[in-house]
Design a protein that fits this description.
The protein is an alpha/beta fold. The protein has a single domain (2-350), classed as TIM Barrel, CATH 3.20.20.70. The protein contains twelve helices and 13 strands. The strands form three sheets. It has an eight-stranded parallel beta barrel with strand order 3-4-7-8-9-10-12-13, surrounded by four helices. The protein has a three-stranded antiparallel beta sheet with strand order 5-6-11, with no helix packed on it. Helix 5 (149-160) packs parallel to helix 6 (185-203), helix 7 packs across helix 8 (269-283) and helix 9 (298-306) crosses helix 11 (325-339). 49% of the residues are buried.
Length: 351
């Protein structure tokens, strides 16, 4: 079966990138994805931002923009799945081509532009799977032409409240003009303040659904310290470090290296891990972190955890390694934790 999935992955790479992605989603909806009945090693259990996970390996947003296949990806072995990015109104995103493989670099560049079918469809799909179990999050964004982008995040939070296991406030995509401006001090006070108010109204006397903040890797140290403090002040449960980068390392070899958009995959690993360490230093254990960027092996997942993350996410590596990668990472991560004498993810993260 592993051979078949590896063969299918190789065949998908012969198709245009966006066509291959859509074909993969259709196959998963038809029940053709990998399924594992193997329970995670107990050492992989972790708690991040209020989420109790059986294993720390999550699927990053972008793969399942419209919440079409979260259960298929949970079945493949992910400990949690983040769907989206979803915006209040449907939008087509940026003109094609907008998704590029960089095979020589094990990387991807995208300038998708939050293409998605909108909140109504997203909400109905989450409603249909409500009793299925598993941790499924919603990554919230703003429409490109919105007059009030902060209101878009509040709209998304309100529409999906009670249906997602957690929410991510995505203000770090480089593909919606001006979106990263919400990472500025005053703009973030406005955003997180309004999110906090909406959350209080939605929660009432009940326990709150966790809310995470996703940041860019292209930040200065002073911004890291200030964003960490703001996230704590406004009650965010975790910070996700990080989104794609607008940088283009000189090491890139692929023909598409100069395409506009966000770079992800292997070239992002070192930069995003450095940024994760900076956030870990600023947080000093007072807010949980999730590490994202360039993970394609158990060793890289472990490096993120040793840098301060209590969970990790990946997506781009699936383009090259296929869906069996998550089980390989789980096995290797458990082995590395035991070899270093750790009893849990949290222990390794804090060491």
């Amino acid at each position: 079966m592993t051979f078949l999935y590896k063969t299918a992955t190789s065949l998908m790479r012969t198709l245009p990138a966006e066509t291959a992605h859509r074909t993969t989603i259709k196959a998963l909806k038809a029940g053709l994805g990998p399924m594992t009945a193997k329970k995670p090693d107990p050492i992989l259990a972790t708690n991040v931002g209020g989420l109790a996970l059986t294993n720390p390996v999550g699927l990053a947003p972008g793969f399942d923009k419209d919440a079409e296949v979260p259960d298929a990806m949970l079945g493949a072995g992910f400990g949690f799945v983040e769907c989206g990015t979803v915006t209040p109104r449907p939008q087509g995103g940026n003109p094609r081509p907008r998704l590029f493989r960089l095979p020589e670099d094990k990387a991807v560049i995208n300038r998708m532009g939050f293409n998605n079918s909108g909140l109504d469809i997203f909400r109905k799909r989450l409603e249909r799977r409500r009793e299925n179990g598993g941790i499924v999050g919603a990554n919230l964004g703003a429409n490109k032409d919105s007059d009030d982008r902060v209101a878009d995040y509040v709209t998304g939070l309100s529409a999906l409240w009670g249906l997602a296991d957690y929410f991510t406030i995505n203000i770090s995509s480089p593909n919606t003009p001006g979106l990263r401006d919400l990472q500025a001090a005053d703009a973030m006070d406005d955003l997180l303040g309004r999110i906090q108010e909406a959350r209080a109204e939605l929660t009432g006397d009940n326990p709150s659904t966790p809310i995470f903040l996703k940041v860019a890797p292209d930040l200065r140290l002073d911004q890291v310290e200030r964003i960490t403090q703001q996230a704590r002040t406004y009650g965010m449960n975790a910070i996700i470090v990080s989104n794609t980068t607008i940088d283009r390392p000189e090491s890139l070899k692929s023909a598409h290296k100069d395409e506009g958009g966000g770079l992800s995959g292997a070239p992002l690993f070192k930069k995003s891990t450095r940024m994760l360490k900076e956030f870990a230093a600023a947080a000093d254990g007072r807010i949980d972190l999730i590490g994202v960027g360039g993970i394609s092996s158990g060793g890289e997942a472990y490096a993120k955890i040793r840098a301060g993350a209590k969970a990790v996410q990946l997506y781009s590596a699936l383009v090259y390694a296929g869906p069996g990668l998550v089980m390989d990472i789980r096995s290797d991560l458990a082995r590395r934790l035991k070899a270093d004498g750790f009893n849990s993810i949290e222990e390794a993260s804090a060491a």
